[in-house]
Each structure stands twice: as C-alpha cells, then as structure tokens.
Amino acid sequence: MTATELPGPLAEIADDFRSASNDLKLQLLLEFSDELPALPERYAGQLDRLERVDECQTPLFLVVEVEQSSAAAERRVHLFFDAPAESPTTRGFAGILHAGLDGLSPEEVLAVPDDAPMRFGLAEAVSPLRLRGMAAMLARIKRQVREKSAA
C-alpha cells in the first residue's frame, strides 16, 4: 500500500460506494450503521473511557485498542464506537471505518490517507458537515493508534 492508497478492506468499501447511485449509497450507509458492533461489555456505561468526536453532529464516542505483542507485525488495531441508533449516518460512517480498519496493523491504519472519507463518493449524498465528522473520526483513530503504539 502506498501513501495514497487505501488498505484492502477500506478500498473495497470505497469502490462499492463510488459505483453506487446516491440512493444506493444511502442504503449502504444504513447497512453499515446496522452492522456496527455494540460496545464490548468492558466499556458499557463507561463513556468516560472513550473519546468524544465533537465534530460529529450527534454524540459519537470511540476508543482504539492496539494489541501488544513482542512482534510488531502481529499487533492489530481494534476499534470500538458508541453512537445512538437514531443517528444512522454517523453510525454508518463509524461502521465503514470499523469494517475497513479493524484488525489491521497499526502501520496500515496510520498509512490511511487523511482524505479517505472523501474517496467514497458520498459528497453528493450527504452534507460536507457530515463528511467532516467522518474525517474527525479517522483523525482521532490515527492519533490514538500512534499514542497506544508508542506506549
């Protein structure tokens, strides 16, 4: 993967969105919203352990875990999100990032271009303000990966 490419899973999702009509894009976004995994029990009721993404129009919280291993190649990133069910667009963006990034290595996540949210062709289907929220999610994910990989 070069600095301008998306990692495999995220690239496949981006291709699906770019090839879809605007109506289908919204349907795909709803599917990602529905597929966003629930927060694990260890974070239930503990939103203070998650980071709020203020740029999102609805409350969204996230936390990143980086598996610690003596072999850097074996470390994996895991993403967890909390967003209200009545916010399908925000949940959909979180679902895309979860499906596209969860399980990748820290290096793969950090190599994701900052403009990745603009590569889904969603600008015609959702407002720029909403896309800014997805970009903020990605920025926070990458920051947390850097911090937790260095620890």
TrEMBL record:
Q: Where are the transmembrane segments?
A: none
A Pfam family annotated for this chain is SufE
Q: This protein's superkingdom?
A: Bacteria
Q: Which residues form the Fe-S metabolism associated domain?
A: 16-144
Q: Which family does it belong to?
A: Belongs to the SufE family.
Q: What is this protein called?
A: Fe-S metabolism associated SufE
Per the UniProt record, the lineage of the source organism begins with:
Bacteria, Bacillati, Actinomycetota, Actinomycetes, Micrococcales
